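FYI - complex with EPZ, inputs then prediction.
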Amino acid sequence: MDKIVIEGGKPLYGDVRISGAKNAALPVMASALLTEGTNTFHNIPDLVDIKTIKKLLINMGVQIDGDETCRINADKITHCDAPYDLVKTMRASILVLGPLVARMGVARVSLPGGCAIGARPVNLHLKALEDMGAHVELNSGYIEARAKKLKGADIYFDLQTVTGTENIMMAATLAHGTTVLNNAAREPEVVNLAEVLKGMGAKISGAGTDVITITGVTSLKPAEASIIPDRIEAGTFMIAAGMTRGEINIIGCNPQHLESLINKLRDTGMKITPIKNGLKVSAGKKITSVDVKTLPYPGFPTDLQAQIMAYMAIGGGLSVISETVFENRFMHVSELLRMGADIVIQGGNAIVRGVPKLHGAQTMATDLRASASLVLAALVAEGTTEISRVYHIDRGYETIEKKFSALGADIKRVK
Ligand code: EPZ
């Protein structure tokens, strides 16, 4: 098992190019199941999760070639199932459910188990499919869904669910009649998927708002499209600039997708200015502690909560960080405490008192974004930090140690 070793204390300077967004690429690649012919997608990131969804699709008989530019042909789908051994490594596999039922009328997808950050049920996905006339059963850990032809329905999501919105939006493109998604997720990744589906001939309006209307068509044609930049990767590097007292040009990010973070980081004293193709981000004179509450987009993203907590751990005062999206997304706290942070958890809130410095330690990654926060803490900690179970990082960050060492960090991956 690889681990990452970091010698803290180096300010980061220079340019970092942001990769395509994992959480946009996954639904877009799944949407290829809706069409015959060859879809071409650009700016696909090189991540473990991308390799996983490729395996899943190939297992269904789909042909795929290419990496950053990926061509996917789903002329022949020979198996309509997503087996447990693949789904257990990536919950986003649930995204094949909607397209399979819509295109093939049948799907057998392993229930994604829980994960470190919470139970993460998919009940809202299943209820919406039933509302559209699908017959859904749970048999020995598998979702078995069937529908001769999905029919348009008026869907109301009890919670804003990103992949739930994406799954049902994809299913609705080939349903008979019109589907309205109420309380839909508004994330940029949902909008990216909607644009790709429209490029395939789908009739969709309202993506990016909380009401999305889809009028079903009889078939879709293959599309060519690009994946948006990863706002969570960009946010992680922006926070790194503030923590290490450096200055980083975040190249290729989309500032409009980062407004809640930009405002928050400015409140901590950082300078953030737009440049030709991204943002110039520099540390403030000192770090002012701020409160953070995670919310569905356009609120502060839960996927940056662990990272901003690492930043507030060395802040100038007291910061209250509220996690409202997931029930157990404070796994990084125990590791940060071992590095000398002063954090107390009270229910869904973490009370973070800034300390003058953190100390290197042996730590263990638990989930994707928690491991990113350990990397950030290690970059400023005094001494050496080792982070084991690095596969968590590789799921969502493309060659993270190469990108950080290019900015001056003393970071290396050891077998
Ligand atoms: C997506 O997960 C992202 N993953 C997550 O990113 C992200 O943290 C999350 O949205 C929130 O922004 C992908 O897009 C592949 P949800 P998703 O459905 O869709 C509850 C990362 O690090 N819920 O929006 O699974 C759920 O338990 C990952 O890249 C139900 O109760 O999240 C959670 O509390 C981590 N029933 C809340 O809704 C359902 O049927 C939001 O979850 C669905 C969700």
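The radius of gyration is 21 Å. The first helix runs from residue 22 to 31.
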